[in-house]
Amino acid sequence: SLAVLQALEDGLKKADADPSVKAVMICGENGKFSAGADIRGLSCPKRQGAALGPIVSLIESSQKPVVAAIEGVALGGGLEVALGCHYRIAHVKARMGLPEVTIGLLPGAEGTQRLPRLIGVPAALDMITTGKHIPATEALKLGLVDEIVEENTIDAAIRLANKV
């Protein structure tokens, strides 16, 4: 939603400007990272507010480490947010993918560029063209996530942020 996008943008800018903040962690709520953008917003001709692509670029360009704590699902725009992060921790039961292609939409926040850089062209093309959801264990093997955990992803993300 626009409210979530605006909160991400505001939070990241505030964290970047605050010298006491050493790292940023992005997580979802209620056991889900993000199921992606609200496609109903695509039909609004003059949408006001933040857009996902520039926010993902803002995350990626942060001078402070940004860690994604992925639980449940990171799909579509949610995966693109995670791809913009410098590090990704996933719960062992998490699933990731770009399912928007199954309804004829291409990932719109540069996921088609970031994913191949991270996991290689063949694996990225498979995910991008099929829209399949991959489990965390496969994401780890591909290099999509840095670590998978069975415990709380937020705690694991904080540990990683402290380490880096």
UniProtKB/TrEMBL annotation:
PROSITE patterns in the cross-refs: ENOYL_COA_HYDRATASE
Pfam family, one: ECH_1
Species per Swiss-Prot/TrEMBL record: Promerops cafer (Cape sugarbird)
Classification via InterPro entries: ClpP/crotonase-like_dom_sf, Enoyl-CoA_hyd/isom_CS, Enoyl-CoA_hydra/iso
Membership in a protein family: Belongs to the enoyl-CoA hydratase/isomerase family.
SUPFAM superfamilies cross-referenced by the UniProt entry: ClpP/crotonase
The reaction(s) this protein catalyses: a (3E)-enoyl-CoA = a 4-saturated (2E)-enoyl-CoA; (3S)-hydroxyhexanoyl-CoA = (2E)-hexenoyl-CoA + H2O; (3S)-hydroxydecanoyl-CoA = (2E)-decenoyl-CoA + H2O; (3S)-hydroxyhexadecanedioyl-CoA + NAD(+) = 3-oxohexadecanedioyl-CoA + NADH + H(+)
Domain of life: Eukaryota
GO cellular component: peroxisome
Keywords on record: Isomerase, Lyase, Multifunctional enzyme
The name this protein goes by in its record: Peroxisomal bifunctional enzyme
Alphabetized PANTHER family for the sequence: 3-HYDROXYACYL-COA DEHYROGENASE, PEROXISOMAL BIFUNCTIONAL ENZYME
GO BP annotations, alphabetical order: fatty acid beta-oxidation
GO MF, one example: (3S)-3-hydroxyacyl-CoA dehydrogenase (NAD+) activity
